[in-house]
Amino acid sequence: MKQRVVVGLSGGVDSGVAAWLLKQQGYEVIGLFMRNWHDTTGLISAECSYEDDVLFAEMVAKKIGIPFHQVDLSEQYRTRVVDYLFREYAAGRTPNPDVLCNREIKFDAFVEEALKLGAEKVATGHYARVTMFNSDQGPVFRLLGGLDKNKDQSYFLCQLNQKQLSYAMFPLGDLTKPEVREIAREQNLANAERKDSQGICFVGKVDLPVFLQQKLASKKGQIIEVPKNGYSMPTGNTISDLSEAVEFYPEMGKVIGEHQGAHFYTIGQRKGLNIGGKEEPLFILATDVINNIIYVGQGQNHPLLFKKALLVKQNEVHWIRPDLALKPGDQRDCFARIRYRQELQKAHLICQPDGIHLIFDEPQRAVVAGQFAVWHYGEELIGSGSIG
Length: 388
What we know:
This protein is α/β, with parallel strands linked by helices. It is built from eight helices and 18 strands.
């Protein structure tokens, strides 16, 4: 009897090819399209509208010859992903909704719907790999990156747990994006040349301030420029560091403009300040949502844009492999990254009662609170957590 696999068909080329591959491999494949968003507030482009997405998904399912179903998960998506996004921005942090979407929707709410269709496994078009081995305590699942280093999406799966990985199948993990496109062309799939989606998962490409103003009000505040050198400043780029420096050196706290709300900006951001006349472009060094102040500096190599260490608080630490979790006092070398597509960096994990301290061999640019740091042992993604 064939194993039944439900594939999350999004209308994009990746999920379409994933479904075709599974059908070729002898699985009983069912396509399931999930609608997760209805609102168009702040949407820049209608290129990836719901109507287009579902049409392409249905055409691909028909071409492959698999059943096609739809499910509306918009209520779960709003409460478990979008509300989180608003809370994080309001707190002056920069969230990653795609990571939460995988944890809360694609491999939770969606899996529940797939099980209703008799699924034994759930597949998506992610460029990642899952392997399994048997231990004395039972099966252990390993999350590995996709072989296409330019498309490796294991970062976005960094919050999955062992139960979620036990359902997961990633048929594209051994392929490159060009190979996937070629398969789609050879099979005459309707979405073979369709562009990849951009922006917030299931929402699309948005004008972020307009999108956030649904719940976060505009509020004028000061933009303060911090010079590159000439002062003995505290290390790091925390609010307290910069506030302390500006208070101690009033002459350095030069107000150079106004913004519309500190919660609309993030560390490392260049666009959106609308201030010219500087020798080098301005970049955001820190945001203070309590006092509604943005600190900026000239040049992409401003020293306050770099940090060598970060903290993932204990309640934010997630181990994909609980059997490899560090205990307070433990240390281990690893490879880590703080954003999607960043090259893995040599680092050192130190577990303390307050959480995981991640110390990099080389200072990292734009370490952003609310984003996810992930750590690897060899090729395996072991754990992750939201940066404090």
